[in-house]
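Page 37, continued from 36.
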């Protein structure tokens, strides 16, 4: 039996429901399904008149409602539920049908599921979707990975429902296998770094500039009209301006300082460690959330461990602008690192990622959407094989101009005892990256001393070992 729905969505919690509504609102007939049937009934009751929906109560009914090849978006909780749905769907599907996992799956799972589905003649796509609840409904940034021929079957739908910036939809086929979910993972990692940089600026503005939340909210509002213009800077202004109904003071002042996380930042950092890519901005952001969670330990340490207590500066005019520049320079570094990571993963996995296209599809719909991404898109358009974004004249110059302020902020924060892990590690990365000769010569010497790991010389080919504990002579080992 062949149904009439062009595409199906199973999993009607907030993301799946909004994605299904977005698709139907674009005139595409959608079959919907949810494990708990009552949710489907409620969905049809609430939104049934927004488009051409077919509500189904069983997976058999669901697959029967779809055109061939069947195109099925799975929007269930990431992890085991995705495998469960694939297992249940597989016997009901035909050769060439397409399963699209649009949740936040970890990319190695996507690689495995692609192979498992292929063994059953099913085409599997791992698709990153960013933008949260509102993006799913009004236009997300979509990062589809998997078989390009399978993508061709859904391209028109994805392009219709994605956010649009300057007439360009925020969706592009990212690459094969796990590439889509990989890129979504790095997107989320960059989101962690962006947020950490924002909170470090907030901390300094509070404790070193001596400003209160509404005043800082206004500063973020101003910053949002310059180089920093972005969704996260914009909402920072709004969150800081919010008044708590209960206390009459700023809401942010009564929110517990313990950050949650769902794991995508950790995945990004772990992957960077495996690739050997320095990813200090994102990784420090993950560690900072970890430190924030040690609330009880911090409470004890706050009365035990010595250190300066920050005191508000008398003249804050220059300080506020210095903090803005430090935020911008650190942000450039965090993005340079994230893009370097995607480049390394692309080379390792033969994904052939178009990094300029990634910047292009992140300009709208997603959480890190920003003006700044236009600059990154331009950089890759001019230099497709770029090693590091810092080397493009625009960014080289931007960081060069900001660096005096950036260094002042790191010094001031350190003197005043304000933790700035992302600001300071970004500056250290910058200083390390711009050194032709670093100090790792000594590491090699030490490794050779205790483990005969050998070293190379700057003045001769080959590898060498010194008999440190014996006669001290050097021998060539290759
Ligand atoms: P949740 O992640 O909260 O998952 C709830 C859905 O999964 C419900 O439809 C539930 O069905 C279904 N489900 C579960 Br739980 N176990 C199942 C199983 N074994 N078999 C079949 N269905 C099962 O939903 P969400 O917040 O809409 O997110 C969906 C995906 O999108 C996740 O991967 C999430 O990480 C990702 N994502 C979320 C956001 C966001 O802002 N929330 C943003 C971007 C991406 P039930 O109704 O029967 O319990």
């Amino acid at each position: 039996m062949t149904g009439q729905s062009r595409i199906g969505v199973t999993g009607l919690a907030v993301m799946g429901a909004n994605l299904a509504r977005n698709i139907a609102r674009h005139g595409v007939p959608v079959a919907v399904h949810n494990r708990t049937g009552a949710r489907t009934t409620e969905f049809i009751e609430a939104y049934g008149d927004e488009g051409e929906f077919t509500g189904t109560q069983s997976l058999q009914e669901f697959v029967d409602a779809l055109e061939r090849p069947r195109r099925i978006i799975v929007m269930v909780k990431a992890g085991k539920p995705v495998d469960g749905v694939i297992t249940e769907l597989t016997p009901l599907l035909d050769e060439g049908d397409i399963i699209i996992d649009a949740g936040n799956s970890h990319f190695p799972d996507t690689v495995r599921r692609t192979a498992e589905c292929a063994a059953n003649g099913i085409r599997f796509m791992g698709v990153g979707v960013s933008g949260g609840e509102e993006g799913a409904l009004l236009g997300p940034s979509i990062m589809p990975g998997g078989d390009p021929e399978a993508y061709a079957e859904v391209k028109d739908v994805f392009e219709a429902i994605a956010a649009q910036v300057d007439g360009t939809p925020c969706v592009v086929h990212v690459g094969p296998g796990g590439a889509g979910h990989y890129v979504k993972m790095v997107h989320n990692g960059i989101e962690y770094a962006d947020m950490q940089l924002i909170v470090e600026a907030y901390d300094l503005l509070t404790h070193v500039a001596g400003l209160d939340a509404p005043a800082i909210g206004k500063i973020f509002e101003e910053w949002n009209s310059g180089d920093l213009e972005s969704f996260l800077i914009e909402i920072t202004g709004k969150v800081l301006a919010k008044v708590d109904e209960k206390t009459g003071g700023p809401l942010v002042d009564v929110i517990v300082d313990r950050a949650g996380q769902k794991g995508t930042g950790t995945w990004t950092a772990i992957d960077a460690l495996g690739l050997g890519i320095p990813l200090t901005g994102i990784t420090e952001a993950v560690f900072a959330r970890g430190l924030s969670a040690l609330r009880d330990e911090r409470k004890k340490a706050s009365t035990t461990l010595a250190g300066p207590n920050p005191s508000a500066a008398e003249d804050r005019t220059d300080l506020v602008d210095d903090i803005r520049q430090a935020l911008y320079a650190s942000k450039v570094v965090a993005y340079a690192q994230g893009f370097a990571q995607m480049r390394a993963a692309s080379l390792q996995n033969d994904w052939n990622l178009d990094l300029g296209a990634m910047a292009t599809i992140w300009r709208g719909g997603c959480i890190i959407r920003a003006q700044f991404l236009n600059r990154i898109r331009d950089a890759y358009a001019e230099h497709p094989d770029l090693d590091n974004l810092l080397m493009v004249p625009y960014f080289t110059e931007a960081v060069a101009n900001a660096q005096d302020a950036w260094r002042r902020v790191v010094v001031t924060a350190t003197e005043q005892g304000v933790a700035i892990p992302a600001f300071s590690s970004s500056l250290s990365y910058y200083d390390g990256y711009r050194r032709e000769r670093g100090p790792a010569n000594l590491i090699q010497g030490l490794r050779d001393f205790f483990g005969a790991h050998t070293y190379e010389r700057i003045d001769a080919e080959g590898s060498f070992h010194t008999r440190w504990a014996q006669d001290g002579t050097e021998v060539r080992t290759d």
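The domain at 7-173 is CATH 3.40.50.720 (Rossmann fold). Flag for discussion at group meeting. The first strand starts at residue 7 and ends at 10.
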